[in-house]
Design brief:
Elements lengths: L34 E5 L6 E5 L5 E6 L2 E4 L29 E6 L2 E6 L8 H46 L3 H10 L1 H6 L13
Antiparallel strand pairs: 1-2, 2-3, 3-4, 5-6
């Protein structure tokens, strides 16, 4: 079931929604606990769920909270431990340290490094990751440049509109509020940059 959108019109109610069940937290918006609470849409039982740390949903019945094992977004990790029938219940992709609670016992383990992993494979992986990092940095620089250009164009458009509609003083303010952008556009001469009109 897809996550629902929160009801933002109710300003007294927490905006957290469950990732799998169609429900929104019924606690006040000001609550600061990690647990959110609601009523189960089918059974009517009190529920509490947590979205930070590890995703978890519990149902209150017979005076106790019971884990419902609703998969987190992306599903469970399900990594096998050395114990039979013990699988990681963390969110898929969480990392190398795994954890599960089975029959009241807590198990934790790390994913072992594959035995046949070689230095050449690790070197190739590191080179690939570095290449991906360089690509990401160049993409970030490209997006920053596009944002800067869009900002300058927006300033120019607002200034032109104000200037064309008889608001020269307002246009001058728009052009000179961001002096570096105005200089780049050659709207304000360098000598005028520090002077007011």
């Amino acid at each position: 079931m897809p996550e629902i959108l929160p009801d933002l019109n109710d300003e007294t109610r927490c905006v957290s929604v469950h990732w799998n069940l169609p429900l929104q937290c019924v606690l006040p918006r000001s609550h600061r606990e990690n647990w959110h609470e609601a009523w189960h849409p089918q059974t009517g039982n009190r529920l509490r769920y947590r979205r930070s740390g590890d995703y978890r949903t519990e149902d209150l019945h017979h005076g106790e909270w019971h884990h419902l094992e609703i998969p987190p977004p992306g599903g469970f990790c399900n990594d096998n431990s050395t114990y039979p029938h013990v699988r990681c219940t963390g969110q898929y992709g969480h990392g190398w340290n795994h954890r599960a609670v089975v029959d009241g016992c807590t198990y934790s383990w790390n994913t072992p490094i594959p035995k046949d992993l070689t230095v050449d494979q690790l070197t190739r992986d590191v080179k690939q990751l570095r290449g991906m990092l360089v690509d990401a940095h160049s993409r970030i620089a490209e997006l920053e440049e596009q944002a800067k250009t869009a900002r300058i164009e927006a300033i120019a458009d607002v200034g032109d509109f104000l200037d064309e509609n008889g608001h020269q003083d307002a246009a001058h303010i728009v052009y000179t509020v961001d002096i570096p952008a105005a200089r780049d556009m050659k709207v304000v001469a360098v000598s005028e940059a520090g002077e007011s009109r």
